[in-house]
Amino acid sequence: MKFRSIGLSLRFIVPLALVLALFGYLVIPLMDNFTVRWFVRDLDMRSQLLARTLQDPLVEYLPMRASKRIEQLFDRAIQDERLYAVGFCDPNGVLRYKTATYPASLGCWHPLVGDPEKKSLVRLPQGPVHVAESEITQDGVDLGRLILVHDMSFIERRSADTKKYILGFFALLALAISLITVVIAHLSWRGWISGVKEMLRGELMPRAKAETPPEMQPLAGDVRQMLRDYHLDRQSEGNTGGEWTGDTLKALLQQDLAGDQVLVVSNREPYIHELTPRGIEVRRPASGLVTAVEAVMRACSGTWIAHGAGSADHQTVDRHAHVRVPPDHPSYTLRRVWLSPDEEQGYYYGFANEGLWPLCHIAHVRPVFRSSDWEQYVKVNQRFADAVIVEATSDNPVVLVQDYHFALLPRMVRAVLPKATIITFWHIPWPNSESFGICPWREEILDGMLGSTILGFHTPFHRKNFLDTVDRYLETRIEQEASTISYGGQLTQVAQYPISIAWPEDNPDAISVDECRARIREMHGMPPDHLLGIGVDRLDYTKGIIERFQAVERLLELDPSLIGRFTFIQIAAPTRSSLDEYQNFESRVRKLAERINQRFSAGNHAPILLKIEHHEQDQLTVYFRASEVCMVTSLHDGMNLVAKEFIAARDDEKGVLILSQFTGAARELHEALIVNPYHIEQGAEALQKALSMPPVEQRERMRSMRRRVKDFNVYRWAGRMLQDAARLRQRDHVMSKIDFHSRVAARRRA
Ligand code: ADQ
Question: Which atom of ligand 1 lies at the shortest distance from residue 632's CA?
Answer without folding.
Answer: 7
